[in-house]
Each structure stands twice: as structure tokens, then as C-alpha cells.
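Whiteboard transcription, Tuesday session. T.W. wrote the C-alpha cells on the left side:
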């Protein structure tokens, strides 16, 4: 059985389409909800690995739920689906440690790839969204990094784990994590889960 998932959207056709698609792909869809209150209760009840949530829902938005899950330290990984191409919403999602952000018009084309990425603890943000927002950190920040830190970033961009990076660079996991901590400070990233991964994905072209 594949990854356990709950889904929520206040548009019945979108909800049904997503549900049918995930079932066809053999994902373990535990339940679905038509508003944010129901979605939050389903996460509390089922403790799914992933919750795919519409951002704009009655009672609680997808962002509200992500915030509550973060405050409660729940392990469910949040994927947001939306028509919104709004930089403020995108930034708030990043700050809340949301794992995925998929635009609805590309949902069926991207959701499976997004889920597979999230399962590996790799954030996924719709390429169309990043392109639309022209998301790009100042490359000058890279000048603050040492050659070793740049090498670590390049390996992160290749989806290498801390253990794999350590083996490739002949250093311990602890040393890798220490370097990553220094990189996060130098790049002035929010001290939240996945902030470095997201930055690397957004700035991968500068690391090649």
C-alpha cells in the first residue's frame, strides 16, 4: 500500500477528480473533506503521512491548517493546491514548512511527482509558480560561502542525503550538519525545516 493521504477541497469536482486520480495510482486515500475544519479533524484522527489541501476553504484555510500542524509538531506533510500565484502566500507557505505547492491547473500532471518528492522529504513547488513569481535569491549570497559549503549545496541539489554527502566528502554526518547550519545563517534563511532544500531548488542554476 502506498503513502497514506487525506485530501480536502471545497470544490466537489476538483475533490472527486483528485480522489479518483490518487486511487487509480494506488495511493492510500484515507478520507476527504470539503472544508478546513473537517480536514484538520481528519489529520488529527488519521495522522496521515501527507495532507493535500486547497488553500482557500471555509472555516480554516490550507495555510491555517499548516500553521496548526506546525504548532502541534504533527508529522503530516502538507501539500497545498491552489489557483493562487501570490508571492505573499508562497512565502507564508515556505515559512510554515509546507512541503508542496501545486497549481490546480497542473495538479493532475504534477501531483504524483510532488508526492514522490515529498515522501523523500524533498519540497516540491510548482515550476510554473516559481517561474511566474520569478523567484530568485540574490546570487551574491553565494559569495559568502566557502568552497566546501558550495560543494555541499551542489550535492544537496543532486538530492544527496547528509549521510551520502559525508561519504562523498569523507567527513562525518555531524560535520555535514554543522556546515549546513553555517550555510543557512550565511544565506539568511528562516530556521525552519526544509528552508535550505527549498533555497537550493530555487537557485539550482547558480550552483551548476
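and on the right, the sequence the group agreed on:
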Amino acid at each position: 500500500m502506498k503513502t497514506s493521504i487525506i485530501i480536502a477541497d471545497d470544490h466537489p469536482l476538483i475533490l472527486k477528480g483528485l480522489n479518483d486520480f490518487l486511487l487509480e495510482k494506488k495511493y492510500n486515500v484515507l478520507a476527504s473533506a470539503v472544508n478546513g475544519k473537517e480536514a484538520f479533524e481528519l489529520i488529527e484522527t488519521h495522522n496521515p503521512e501527507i495532507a493535500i489541501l486547497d488553500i482557500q476553504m471555509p472555516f480554516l484555510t490550507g495555510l491555517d491548517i499548516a500553521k496548526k500542524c506546525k504548532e502541534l509538531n504533527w508529522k503530516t506533510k502538507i501539500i497545498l493546491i491552489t489557483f493562487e500565484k501570490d508571492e505573499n502566500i508562497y512565502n507564508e507557505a515556505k515559512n510554515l514548512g509546507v512541503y508542496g505547492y501545486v497549481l490546480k491547473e497542473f495538479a493532475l500532471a504534477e501531483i504524483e511527482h510532488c508526492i514522490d518528492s515529498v515522501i523523500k522529504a524533498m519540497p516540491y513547488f510548482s515550476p510554473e509558480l516559481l517561474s511566474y513569481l520569478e523567484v530568485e535569491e540574490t546570487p551574491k549570497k553565494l559569495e559568502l560561502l566557502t568552497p566546501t559549503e558550495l560543494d555541499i549545496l551542489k550535492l544537496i541539489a543532486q538530492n544527496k542525503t547528509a549521510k551520502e554527502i559525508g561519504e562523498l566528502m569523507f567527513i562525518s554526518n555531524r560535520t555535514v550538519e554543522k556546515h549546513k547550519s553555517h550555510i543557512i545563517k550565511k544565506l539568511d534563511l528562516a530556521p525552519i525545516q526544509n528552508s535550505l532544500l527549498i533555497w537550493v531548488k530555487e537557485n539550482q542554476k547558480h550552483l551548476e
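Someone added at the bottom: The CA atoms of residues 99 and 118 lie 6 Å apart.
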